[in-house]
Amino acid sequence: MSLPGGARLLPVGQRLGELHTGTGGETRGLLVHTGGEAVLVEDGDPADLWDVAHGLTAVVGHVAWDRGQVGAVFPDLGPADVDRLVEDLLARRLLAEVDPDDAEGFLAGHRWYSRLSGLGYLERDHGWVCGIGVPGAPPVREVSPRVYEFWSLAPELGSLAEAADFLAAAAVDDPGVTAAETDPAAVRAAVVDWLHDLLCVGAGWLEALP
Fold first, then answer.
1. CA Rg value for the chain
2. Is 78 in contact with 111 (CB distance < 8 Å)?
3. Tens of pLDDT along 66-124?
4. Which of 71, 82, 155, 198 is deepest in the core (most CB within 10 A)?
5. Helix-helix angle 145-153:184-199, to 10 degrees
6. How far apart are CA 54 and CA 73, in angstroms?
7. Cβ-contact 184, 164 below 8 angstroms
8. Domain extents in the chain
9. Burial (Cβ within 10 Å: 0-12, 13-18, ≥19) of residue 183
């Protein structure tokens, strides 16, 4: 079941780093690789909002990361300013705004790429989780086995939709599986919320398909 809330804001592209001028060293903005090229997201509010769209580690998984949540991070900006920034990044295909219950176009038109390393299963008081991070160091994120399975397998598949359908089909014979875990529509909706669980720690990125 997806989290209650509005349409999710999701960043598109791989963060390459900040671009500085050659003389004074002022930051011009973020370079984001998407669509086969490096795109400049201007310094200040545009770059900050694109970064915040990845989610904050303490709250993703508990709330829907929508315009309201993103806007709350910028108390000096009014709703109209946030909307203007969001619409500009949407037009440049650097953001996607996705309703989990109507996500077919997004899921078919985007692909997931993973980074960091899988650290395997970890036993916790509340059950088993899976770690993602750097070998030899504590995990940067502990996720459910289902999210970990997505993170592991999705880069091998052609789109988010294909990844969700594969997970639903593969779960049929799993012990203790629930009906939602084998329902492709339910898994597709869940994937939309799983993305922020991974994006918030840089465990991968989204790419729009041509």
1. 18
2. no
3. 999 999 999 999 999 999 999 999 999 999 999 988 999 999 999 999 999 999 999 88
4. 198
5. 90
6. 12
7. yes
8. 8-102, 107-208
9. middle
